[in-house]
Design brief:
Strands 7-4-6-5-9-8 form a six-stranded mixed beta sheet, with no helix packed on it. The chain has helices at residues 4-12, 158-166, 205-216, 230-243, 260-268, 301-319, 374-379; strands at residues 20-23, 37-38, 48-49, 53-56, 70-78, 92-96, 108-111, 115-117, 123-126, 136-137, 148-150, 172-175, 179-185, 189-190, 201-202, 219-226, 246-250, 270-275, 278-279, 283-289, 292-297, 329-334, 338-339, 346-355, 361-365, 382-386, 391-392, 396-402. A hairpin with a 5-residue loop joins strand 8 and strand 9. With 412 residues, the chain is of the alpha+beta class. The structure holds adenosine monophosphate and magnesium ion (MG).
Length: 412
């Protein structure tokens, strides 16, 4: 058996970053920026008001209070979208709406709540003294030409999409979203509803893997179920590795007589077979076929998912240009402990996580821990990393890889 860290190194050595591509910002969320985005214009582009109110000359409001307001003549209205070219001079005011340009003569805005317009509409009492620039948003207060808006290596989030749109930039250079082929193998597998014949099971792994790839921001290409038959397997691997950026397979990589994935991949490419010192997900095939990384994951449903987490995820993230593997590790208290015995392997227990008062995270078993018991994996928020040995005593602590949600109460 080889240690987890070494297995992961070998996986990462196969996963080269994909080239960058110009992509529409909204389609780039979750992808990694390859080239710095630099502002080419001022945001906001012109001085405008942050409030609904009256554009004035600050000097005209000197000494104004509720009791002794200053009365100004209202000489026009500017709404958002107008060019704002309404002239005014001392003693005058212009009704103005949030986002409207500052009229040329004005240098401050008094919010409408501090003004008392006369019923005629031609005069207004201003009840507060304001400084020059009051509620005025200057051009470039957010961005100016030359500002680096998004650094290379940034993961695009919705806010970035807005910033790019605000600058009129229609495309951003991001590392390409990998197209990842997926198939499951096994003569026992069938698809969808309908009665099962003796010995048959329904294919779950392929669907799990497609979902994991979606979640990761890859484009899954579903190549279906492949029987334990060399010719078909060979043809499907060829198809996958000549049309996609990576291939993820489930099943057929352990020690059984019909574990043909191992054999055929070995004939077609440069593959390594590993027995990793972990449980579940000990067997792993990783390598390159037609220059494309291949992750041969074990068939047991929980093993398949854990193997994806520990190997395919970091590998694919590296291809996507991410600097990390995108999972948080928290230290959790285990009130019940985890019993185990030494076997030379690190165990990954499926746990639920709860955040208590003061932010203390506790972990508890998510259910049956067999590698075929997918329901507990589905219910799990995390994988508790239980080191080789006699387990974790009740009340002890364990690092947990967060794979689901880790939520706490909404701050009040
Ligand atoms: P294998 O890795 O092919 O030896 O399969 C190990 C175990 O996982 C066997 O019990 C298989 O029936 C089961 N298995 C393999 N592939 C799948 C799949 N796609 N969905 C559900 N179970 C599977
Ligand atoms: Mg099989």
């Amino acid at each position: 058996m080889i240690p987890l860290a070494e297995a992961r190194e070998r996986v990462l050595a196969r996963c080269e970053r994909l080239p960058a591509e110009w992509t529409r910002p909204a389609e780039s969320v979750g992808l990694v920026v390859a080239e710095a985005v630099v502002a080419t214009e001022f945001v906001p582009p012109f001085a405008n008001t942050a409030m609904d109110g009256f554009a004035v000359l600050a000097a005209d409001t000197r000494g104004a209070t509720d009791e002794r307001p200053v009365t100004l003549e209202v000489v026009g209205t500017v709404a958002a979208g107008s060019d704002g070219r309404v002239p005014m001079r001392t003693g005058q005011a212009i009704r103005i709406m949030t986002g409207a340009p500052m009229p040329p003569g004005a240098d401050a805005v008094v919010m409408v709540e501090r003004c008392r317009p006369h019923p005629s509409g031609t005069r207004v009492d201003v009840c507060v003294e304001v400084p020059v620039g009051n509620h005025v948003r200057s051009p470039g207060e957010d961005l100016s030409p030359g500002d680096v808006v998004v650094e290379p290596g940034t993961v695009v989030r919705p806010g970035h999409v807005g910033v790019l749109a605000g600058l009129g930039l229609a495309e951003v250079a991001v590392f390409r979203r990998p197209r990842v082929a997926v198939f499951s193998t096994g003569d026992e597998l069938v698809e969808g509803p309908g009665e099962l014949r003796p010995g048959q099971i329904r294919d779950s792994n392929r669907h799990t893997l497609v979902a994991l790839l979606h979640e990761l921001g890859c484009e899954p290409v579903d190549l279906g179920i492949v029987p334990d038959e060399e010719t078909i397997l060979r043809q499907r691997i060829h198809e996958a590795t000549t049309t996609c950026d990576a291939l993820v397979t489930s099943g057929g990589v352990s020690m059984g007589d019909f574990d043909l994935v191992k054999k055929v991949l070995g004939q077609l490419g440069d593959m390594e077979w590993m027995q990793v010192a972990i449980r579940p997900a000990k067997p792993l095939a990783v390598g390159t076929v037609n220059g494309v990384p291949v992750f041969g994951l074990p068939g047991n449903p929980v093993s398949s998912m854990v193997s994806f987490e520990l190997f395919a995820r970091p590998g694919l993230r590296q291809m996507m240009g991410h600097a990390d593997w995108g999972r948080r590790v928290v230290v959790a208290t285990v009130p019940e402990g985890f019993a185990r015995s030494p076997d030379g392997k690190t165990h990954f227990a499926r746990v639920r996580l709860d955040t208590g008062p003061g932010g203390v995270v506790t972990a508890s078993s998510a259910g049956g821990q067999g590698s075929h018991q997918l329901s507990a994996m589905a219910a799990a928020d995390g994988l508790a990393v239980v080191p080789d040995g006699d387990g974790i005593a009740p009340g002890g602590e364990v690092p947990v890889i967060v794979v689901g949600s880790l939520t706490g109460p909404l701050p009040s």
